[in-house]
Design a protein that fits this description.
The chain is α/β, with parallel strands linked by helices. The protein has helices at residues 18-27, 49-59, 73-78, 80-95, 132-147, 169-178, 196-208, 225-236, 265-271, 278-287; strands at residues 10-13, 33-36, 63-66, 104-110, 152-156, 159-160, 183-186, 190-191, 194-195, 213-217, 242-245, 259-260. The protein has a domain at 10-161 and 193-220 and 261-276: NAD(P)-binding Rossmann-like Domain (Rossmann fold, 3-Layer(aba) Sandwich), CATH 3.40.50.720. The chain has 10 helices and 12 strands. The strands form 4 sheets. A 6-stranded parallel sheet has the order 2-1-3-4-5-10, with helices on both faces. It has a two-stranded parallel ribbon with strand order 6-9. Strands 7-11 form a two-stranded parallel ribbon. The structure holds NADP nicotinamide-adenine-dinucleotide phosphate.
């Protein structure tokens, strides 16, 4: 490809969480990856743009992966001002001095920018979030897209991984099933998970081919949490019972969209990705 660039230097903002840990590990196999955390001046409640800009200049960083976020959607509902500060305003303050600097921001956003009226949402659909968390993600998506012509937005629903991590749903569900803890999982709303490995491949694809724009990263099919739990239970050969529930049975929390499914057609065509299936990711988890 004529517009390929050689391994640009990547800085991950927020390397302590689930996706940050996974991306550091997976991208470091082929790229020079550095990490800045809350303690390094990127506390999004009190951001220090000067320390980020100085770090970028000193280390010749070309790509910024914006991973840090307030991710508990129920806490975002309870404290919308904090959610907006961390998920939008803090980033705006950090990134403002970098507009026109040539740096490439890559934002990790969510299916929750949609209200879930349509199944398998496509990138050209106008976001219409019903959740507070989704509203602040849309604000940041819009600001980045308007200010960085080379910016990238990746939207995902839940991320699964072959590694053990408290926030990896495969780790969490399999641990409970092994311990004989009966599960109650919703069977009325579908989501398209994606593997952390495929998210890392998408990052590599946009870096190497200098692509920009919004991409949905998702498995080909949608699953309910009940179906995901059952697939893990079958793999384990567990006899622990999984009960089915409906989303409306769970009260006192933000109402999730009925459809949390994203279409991966654009990512397949433009990034050349083939997405792992649910069974493949579960298989990899138990092999590793
Ligand atoms: N995991 C998923 O299934 C999923 C699905 C869709 C979208 N995403 C998106 O992917 C990104 C990462 O998600 P994740 O699951 O890896 O989240 P996570 O495990 O909750 O990690 C969140 C990260 O953000 C940092 N952070 C939180 N508050 C901060 C603040 N005030 N200032 C600076 N850093 C702060 C945390 O640092 P500390 O360790 O210091 O708290 C941590 O590194 C998010 O943008 C999320 O919206 C994830």
């Amino acid at each position: 490809m004529s517009n390929e660039v050689q391994n640009p230097k990547v800085l991950i903002l927020g390397g302590t969480g689930f996706l940050g840990t996974e991306l550091s590990r997976l991208l470091a196999l082929r790229h020079e990856v550095q990490v800045m955390n809350r303690a390094d001046g990127i506390d999004l409640e009190n951001p220090n743009p000067d320390s980020l800009r100085a770090y970028i200049q000193k280390n010749q960083i070309e790509v910024l992966l914006l991973v840090a976020a307030m991710t508990d959607v129920d806490l975002c509902l309870k404290d919308p001002m904090k959610s907006r500060q961390i998920n939008f305003l803090g980033y705006q303050k950090l990134l403002l001095p970098l507009v026109n600097s040539g740096i490439k921001p890559v934002l990790f956003s969510s299916n929750n920018v949609f209200s879930g009226v349509n199944a398998f949402s496509v990138e050209s659909e106008t976001p219409k979030p019903s959740m507070v968390y989704g509203q602040h993600k849309v604000e940041l998506e819009t600001w980045i897209t308007e200010n960085f012509s080379n910016g990238v937005v990746f939207r995902t629903a839940r991320i699964l991984s072959s590694s053990d991590h408290a926030k990896n749903p495969i780790s969490d569900l399999s641990r409970k099933l092994k311990a004989g803890i009966e599960l109650t999982l919703t069977s009325d709303r579908k989501l398209t998970p994606v593997s952390a490995k495929d998210v890392a491949s998408a990052v590599e694809a946009v870096l190497l081919c200098k692509l920009n724009g919004t991409f949905h990263l998702a498995m080909n099919a949608g699953y309910t949490w009940f179906e995901i739990g059952r697939a893990i239970k079958n793999k384990l050969g567990s006899s622990t019972v999984i009960h089915e529930s409906e989303s409306r049975d769970i009260t006192g929390r933000e109402i999730r969209p009925v459809n949390s499914t994203l279409s991966n057609q654009k990512a397949q065509q433009e990034l050349g990705l083939k997405f792992q299936s649910l069974d493949e990711v579960i298989e990899e988890y138990f092999k590793s």
